Amino acid sequence: MSVQLQEAPPSTTRRPIRPPSRAHRRGATWFMVVPALVFYAVAVLIPSAQGAVLGFTDWNGLLPEYDFVGFDNFVEIFTTPASLSALWHTFFLAVAITVIQNGIGLLLALGVNSHIKSRNFLRVLLFAPAVVMPVVVAYLWQYLLAPTGAINSLFAAIGLPGLAQSWLGDPTLALWSIVVTVVWQFAGYSMVIFLANLQSIPEDVIEASALDGANAWQRFWYVVRPLLAPSITINLMLSIIGGLKMFDQVWVLTQGGPGGATETISTLLYRNAFQFGEFGYGIALGLVLTVFVAIVAGIQYRVIGRRGQA
């Protein structure tokens, strides 16, 4: 009698899937990153480097010929009264806008974070100017601040004509008029960032401090304020950088006047490059502004970041 041996059924167990090796993951990462880096280098880095070289020349922006002048453009920037005034005005606007905008933004955030019934409507209303183009806002305030504009007409209508001023024509008021315009538009933007941080703070922490006897000011200063470090860092960084490189509002409102009283690095760059044809000097101004913004932002980030971690 013959015995037939049956073959064992094939094993249905699967081999465990091995995770990709570190070298494979690294290769896949570079495969996705390299195209973006190449595009960024071609579109941004190489043109920026080529433009930076022109800051050491006397190029007029039209002819292909130019001569290297070394650091003459940069020496002129730090020795000419007009450029030194522009540096001071740029710094003043950046600091004033940063302090006032974030102070008002924080107060607005604390107000709309309460339980008032109209808080949602107020949030939309206060944030609305931030979505309008800065040029449009600047033209609006140019009309409001004109000698016969709405603000002076309002003072005359309520019997206070003595308060009417040449808001954009007086050198002592023109800079502050620009500050008011920018703060009016972007205080709501700072408010939204502060509000997002306030809503992430647990109410139990605030209630516990209230039970311990802390008043409203103590609860804000010792409990809420340290927890607002992330939003404070973001708001200060955005407002200081935006103030340093601001151009639209200044150019529309005053074009750097009266008599250079509101001239900034950005407006001086535009004037020299596109009106006077001194592109080499204009590019040098742009390089100075870039380095200045990088230094200020780096110092600010380190100082605020350390305080936030403390």
Order of helices and strands: HHHHHHHHHHHHH
Helix content: 55-70%
Main pleated-sheet profile: none
Fraction in beta strands: under 5%
Distance between the termini: 90 Å
* Chain-averaged pLDDT: 87
Looking at CATH, the homologous superfamily of one domain is MetI-like
Written overview of the protein:
By secondary structure, the chain is mostly helical. It has a domain at 72-134 and 173-309: MetI-like (MetI-like fold). It is 68% helix and 0% strand. It has 13 helices and no strands. It has helices at residues 22-54, 72-77, 81-112, 119-127, 134-144, 150-157, 171-198, 203-211, 216-227, 229-244, 248-253, 265-275, 279-309.
Task: List descriptors.
flat, mainly alpha, MetI-like fold, 310 residues, 13 helices, 68% helix
